């Protein structure tokens, strides 16, 4: 049987507000336990929530970023369940009337094609704290620093068909929210957490199969693995004539498997009802317009601009616009060197290559955009060859200074002096009589191949510094 | 001194007839003498009160005194007081000392009022007789066998017995007005959102409202001046401007249209209580007011709607009392479930548990539409009834309660009979309207109250009507024979 996978994703995005969604406490990651928990976060008796306007602003930015309907009157609800890291015994969330309604956005697939993914809704809610089960002698510790951190829960339509699309979706989402500056998107610190709804159906069937929900998958790689694993598990069940149980499962990255969550971890009836401590959030068209006017250029627009203004391929444009930091870096390099094509190559191949090998982010690059631009300028003005430039880049990466400093210090400036080059060419011809004879006897087609030997010899003699174009010209004149 | 109103005491302080320290000692002595019989106070802190009185006297000496500076008052023990236990009448919070003041407390402190102590109440403000307190029932100063009403029974009894000249209360379904009526004092439940709920431990968030309890409308106005106003930390507090609630107290009532809801004068109203209300209405007529019979056709929905909405909100408001961070925690919990169940089993009393169960049921999947949603629809109808009535009349008048205070224990086995006590008061909470109870007579030696309900934010008008009534009557000056002896 050919199975089609149907996937919908729920992403919990931590919004980059300075304070919590309903209290004035800071939201800095990694603080000492319970140092960022106020009386409101602790749900002390009599404490009341006050909505952080910035969280609303960010949510509306997101809604406009995916071309969604904005909830002009959204309502907070209480989602009731007991857990020690949920101090009030309910989470303030949005249920019937979310701040962001139906929207959609485009994802780029590796084969260069694109696909529209529908967004069902996105709503504001508060995060819970953390339960710590180690180091407390059989008891549990509670850290409420995270309690009340603003989250935007983004629910996709079941439009995703495989792991690669899921990852592309998440990357596109990551790109969008970091462009908007509404989240740091840091998955390792839990700023983007993902629940995966996944079901299988026979290829061609209209109705959906029974789904399982996989909770809290926290990296692109785990999303991919969890989907692959869950596909196999459900396919095995279906092919052996069984039925998939609708349940919540947990992805265990260490064992690379999903398993059902204990029933205690799954609350059945959240008794949602409108939060009486907060008024409905009513926004008007003027507010929405104001937010719209303040939106930065978004990834899709930037991608298209890169393709048009810089004549980049769809793929290159997509890679270079993936993150705002990278796109800005690239545009700075272009600004300095003036050649968008070569800049694109250098940023993607040399720079990203080094960054990836060293697991560094673009913001941590030891070579700045202007430094890289200057290096490329030296290629363009024939000071050095592309090959030498790679050496220079290597040295720049090691912190040895600017391109010009390194070229000067190492004497790497390309030899374009006709007299010096002529001497070298003459010497190579004199030392390789047999090859010269062979060359002169050959026809044009063969000569094209054989000339490479002489070029190589000259480059070697010049320690790579000879201007290859001039060497070719000289050889063409002398080997007649 | 204890016979004086807040306004009179303020004059005495200003004229240096006595100091705030003397006044505080005087009322503290009253509490020490009478509280063993009445049980109106849960916590008294004379040292803290005297320290505040010393500071108040300095303000008075410096000429920096307002009308409440140096006036001793009591707070219902549901308002958080920094450094002073705030129990909510529950074992659950028997050990809870808040590190913050409720906004109401902070504002009254800022005005120079002196906190004598914290008054008894039905547990988490759930009750109409003050019999649901972990600290025991409060007795009615007019008759020790009668209840003082609830849930602000301690505040009402404390003021009636002159243990404090005024007190704060909270009113979710009548909890200021009903005990005020039973104890022969004046109580005001302001418009929802007029007084901040921050630090006022929540029973039913969409209905709870704090307000003053005192001898006179004038005193209530003085307290409300300090209590009312927008609080940026309570999103439901109103930004509508406040006013000087004492300014219009003496306005004439000529031409005032007073609505009498047919539904509030029918079966179920004790005849003698009805007579007292009628006598009060004659007084208004005598002052030139016009009495207009009106109808609030959805009144029958009031009790069912309230007893869905209030428990529904309460059931989740009280989820935070889980033994994890503060308050009662059971001994040696075996696991998380055991911690929750035993902590809450031990910490909450029967009525609180009943409302948590009712509310949880009403919000459950499959029942939400039939109960909570329906109740909200009923609430809208009730509100619309009032808005329509206020097209015809300026204020609405009727009895505060169906009769005078009942005997202790008379209704404890019959929760529905107890709930019927609130039949006339609940609607103002559901509609968010201001309501008052004003002493209007005695039935068998027990006080009864006249209820006044006004338009949203018409506190000044209600206080004006009540004050004019009190200028012509003396029910509000009557004192129980001796503290609490019948």
TrEMBL record, chain A:
Lineage: superkingdom: Bacteria
Entry's Gene Ontology molecular function annotations: asparaginyl-tRNA synthase (glutamine-hydrolyzing) activity; ATP binding; glutaminyl-tRNA synthase (glutamine-hydrolyzing) activity; transferase activity
One Pfam assignment: GatB_N
Keyword vocabulary terms for this entry: ATP-binding, Ligase, Nucleotide-binding, Protein biosynthesis, Transferase
Oligomer status and interactors: Heterotrimer of A, B and C subunits.
Claim: Nucleus is one of the keywords in the record: no
InterPro entries to which the protein is assigned, alphabetical: Asn/Gln-tRNA_amidoTrfase_suB/E, Asn/Gln-tRNA_Trfase_suB/E_cat, Asn/Gln_amidotransferase, Asn/Gln_tRNA_amidoTrase-B-like, GatB, GatB_C_1, GatB_Yqey_C_2, Gln-tRNA_amidoTrfase_suB_CS
General function of this protein: Allows the formation of correctly charged Asn-tRNA(Asn) or Gln-tRNA(Gln) through the transamidation of misacylated Asp-tRNA(Asn) or Glu-tRNA(Gln) in organisms which lack either or both of asparaginyl-tRNA or glutaminyl-tRNA synthetases. The reaction takes place in the presence of glutamine and ATP through an activated phospho-Asp-tRNA(Asn) or phospho-Glu-tRNA(Gln).
UniProt-listed Gene3D superfamilies: 1.10.10.410, GatB domain, N-terminal subdomain
A GO biological-process term: glutaminyl-tRNAGln biosynthesis via transamidation
Database matches in HAMAP family: GatB
Organism: Pseudohalioglobus sediminis
EC numbers: 6.3.5.-
Record protein name field: Aspartyl/glutamyl-tRNA(Asn/Gln) amidotransferase subunit B
Swiss-Prot/TrEMBL catalytic activity: L-aspartyl-tRNA(Asn) + L-glutamine + ATP + H2O = L-asparaginyl-tRNA(Asn) + L-glutamate + ADP + phosphate + 2 H(+); L-glutamyl-tRNA(Gln) + L-glutamine + ATP + H2O = L-glutaminyl-tRNA(Gln) + L-glutamate + ADP + phosphate + H(+)
Family from the record: Belongs to the GatB/GatE family. GatB subfamily.
PROSITE patterns linked to this entry: GATB (PS01234)
All residue ranges annotated as the Asn/Gln amidotransferase domain in the record: 328-479
TrEMBL record, chain B:
Segments traversing the membrane: none
Active site: 76 (charge relay system), 151 (charge relay system), 175 (acyl-ester intermediate)
Record's keyword terms, sorted: ATP-binding, Ligase, Nucleotide-binding, Protein biosynthesis, Transferase
Pfam families hit by this protein: Amidase
GO CC list: glutamyl-tRNA(Gln) amidotransferase complex
Catalytic activity: L-glutamyl-tRNA(Gln) + L-glutamine + ATP + H2O = L-glutaminyl-tRNA(Gln) + L-glutamate + ADP + phosphate + H(+)
Protein known as: Glutamyl-tRNA(Gln) amidotransferase subunit A
Provenance organism: Pseudohalioglobus sediminis
């Amino acid at each position: 049987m050919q199975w089609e996978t149907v996937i919908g994703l729920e992403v919990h995005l931590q919004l980059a507000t300075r304070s919590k969604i309903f209290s004035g406490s800071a939201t800095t990651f990694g603080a000492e336990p319970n140092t960022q928990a106020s009386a409101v976060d602790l749900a002390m008796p009599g404490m009341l929530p006050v909505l952080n306007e910035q969280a609303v602003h960010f949510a509306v930015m997101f809604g406009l970023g995916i071309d969604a309907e904005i909830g002009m009157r959204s309502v907070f609800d209480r989602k009731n369940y007991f857990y020690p890291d949920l101090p009030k015994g309910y989470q303030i969330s949005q249920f019937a009337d979310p701040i962001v309604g139906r929207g959609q956005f485009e994802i780029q697939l590796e084969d260069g094609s694109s696909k529209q993914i529908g967004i069902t809704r996105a709503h504001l809610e508060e995060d819970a704290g953390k339960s710590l089960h180690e180091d407390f002698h059989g008891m549990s510790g509670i850290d409420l620093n995270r309690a009340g951190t603003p989250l935007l829960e983004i629910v996709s339509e079941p439009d995703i068909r495989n792991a690669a699309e899921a990852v592309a979706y998440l990357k596109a989402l990551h790109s969008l929210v970091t462009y908007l500056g509404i989240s740091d998107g840091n998955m390792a610190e839990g700023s983007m957490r993902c629940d995966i709804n996944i079901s299988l159906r026979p290829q061609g069937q209209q109705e959906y199969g029974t789904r399982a929900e996989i909770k809290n998958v926290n990296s692109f790689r785990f999303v991919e693995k969890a989907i692959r694993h869950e596909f196999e598990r459900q396919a095995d069940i279906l092919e052996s004539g069984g039925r998939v149980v609708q349940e919540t499962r947990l992805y265990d990255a260490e064992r690379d498997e999903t398993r059902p969550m204990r029933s205690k971890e799954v609350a059945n009836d959240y008794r949602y009802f409108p939060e009486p401590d907060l008024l409905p959030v009513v926004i008007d068209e003027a507010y929405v317009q104001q937010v719209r006017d303040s939106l930065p250029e978004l990834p899709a627009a930037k991608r298209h601009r890169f393709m048009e203004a810089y004549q980049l391929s769809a793929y290159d444009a997509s890679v270079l616009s993936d993150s705002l930091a990278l796109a800005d870096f690239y545009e700075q390099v272009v600004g300095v060197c003036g050649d968008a094509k070569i800049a694109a190559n250098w940023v993607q191949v040399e720079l990203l290559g080094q960054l990836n090998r060293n697991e560094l982010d673009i913001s941590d690059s030891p070579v700045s955009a202007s430094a890289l631009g200057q290096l490329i300028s030296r290629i363009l003005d024939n000071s050095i060859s592309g090959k030498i430039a790679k050496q220079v880049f290597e040295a720049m990466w090691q912190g040895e200074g600017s391109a010009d400093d390194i070229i000067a210090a190492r004497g790497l400036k390309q030899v374009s002096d006709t007299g010096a080059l002529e001497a070298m060419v003459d010497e190579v011809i004199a030392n390789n009589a047999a090859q010269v004879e062979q060359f002169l006897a050959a026809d044009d087609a063969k000569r094209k191949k054989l000339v490479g030997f002489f070029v190589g010899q000259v480059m070697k003699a010049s320690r790579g510094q000879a201007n290859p174009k001039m060497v070719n010209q000289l050889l063409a004149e002398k080997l007649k | 001194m204890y016979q004086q109103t807040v306004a009179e005491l303020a004059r005495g302080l200003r004229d240096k007839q006595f100091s705030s320290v003397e006044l505080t000692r005087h009322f503290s002595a009253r509490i020490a003498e009478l509280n063993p019989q009445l049980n109106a106070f849960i916590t008294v802190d004379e040292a803290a009160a005297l320290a505040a009185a010393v500071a108040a006297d300095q303000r008075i000496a410096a000429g920096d005194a307002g009308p409440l500076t140096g006036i001793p008052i009591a707070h219902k023990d549901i308002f958080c007081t920094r450094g002073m236990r705030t129990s909510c009448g529950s074992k659950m919070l028997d050990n809870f000392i808040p590190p913050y003041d409720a906004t109401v407390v902070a504002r009254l402190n800022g005005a120079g009022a002196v906190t004598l102590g914290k008054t008894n109440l039905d547990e988490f403000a759930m009750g109409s007789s003050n019999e649901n307190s972990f600290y025991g029932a409060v007795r009615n100063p007019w008759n020790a066998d009668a209840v003082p009403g609830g849930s602000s029974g301690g505040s009402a009894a404390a003021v009636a017995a002159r243990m404090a000249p005024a007190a704060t209360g909270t009113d979710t379904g009548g909890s200021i007005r009903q005990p005020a009526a039973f104890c022969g004092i004046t109580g005001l439940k302001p418009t929802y959102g007029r007084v901040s709920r921050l630090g006022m431990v929540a029973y039913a968030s969409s209905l709870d409202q704090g307000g003053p309890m005192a001898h006179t409308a004038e005193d209530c106005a003085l307290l409300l001046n300090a209590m009312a106003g927008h609080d940026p930390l309570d999103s439901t507090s109103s930004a509508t401007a406040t006013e000087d609630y004492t300014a219009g107290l003496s306005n004439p009532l000529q031409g005032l249209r007073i609505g009498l809801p047919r539904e509030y004068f029918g079966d179920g109203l004790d005849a003698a209580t009805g007579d007292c209300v009628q006598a009060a209405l004659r007084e208004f007529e005598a002052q030139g007011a016009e009495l207009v019979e009106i109808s609030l056709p959805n009144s029958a929905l009031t009790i069912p709607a309230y007893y869905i909405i209030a428990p529904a909100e309460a059931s989740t408001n009280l989820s935070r009392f889980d033994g994890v961070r503060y308050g009662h925690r059971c001994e040696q919990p075996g696991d998380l479930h055991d911690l929750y169940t035993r902590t809450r089993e031990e910490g909450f009393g029967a009525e609180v548990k009943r409302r948590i169960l009712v509310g949880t049921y009403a919000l459950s999947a499959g029942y939400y539409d039939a109960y909570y949603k329906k109740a909200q629809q009923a609430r809208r109808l009730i509100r619309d009834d009032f808005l329509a009535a206020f097209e015809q009349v300026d204020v609405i008048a009727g009895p505060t309660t169906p009769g005078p205070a009942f005997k202790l224990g008379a209704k404890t086995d019959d929760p529905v009979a107890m709930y019927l006590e609130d039949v006339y008061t609940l609607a103002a909470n559901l509609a968010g309207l201001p309501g008052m109870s004003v002493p209007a007579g005695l039935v068998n030696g027990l006080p009864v109250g006249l209820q006044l309900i006004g338009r949203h934010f018409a506190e000044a008008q209600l206080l004006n009507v009540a004050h004019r009534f009190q200028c012509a009557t003396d029910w509000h000056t009557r004192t129980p024979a001796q503290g609490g002896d019948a």
